[in-house]
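Many introductory courses stop at the sequence. We go one step further.
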Amino acid sequence: MDYYKNLSEEQNRLNLKSEKVELGMVDDFKKLRKSGGKSYTNYVDDMDAAKGFLSKAIASAKAAKKDLDKAAKLHTDIESSAKDLGIKLPKEVANDTVRALAEETDKDLKMLTSVFSKLKVR
């Protein structure tokens, strides 16, 4: 009879341990959920801020592209006129990289616009 009594007590003790483990798991879940929710809010806030900065960068890139495209066309016109007149261009004009800069700005603008469109905002 003592054997069954001891067995019953042992079973009760194990059941209590099981309930403690389950309660601990629930507490762990609550802590992780709270921490994860806070981290989520933080990174979404950071994405919102990044989207604001990207918006400013896009506006600046559009302004740069507009000016650089005009400068590149003017540079081409100057080269053409100088050739027609048979004169040599000044070194700073002849060696200028405005076309490359305009192309780079165009690529950057496309990339910025693409990234901007993929960021979500709350």
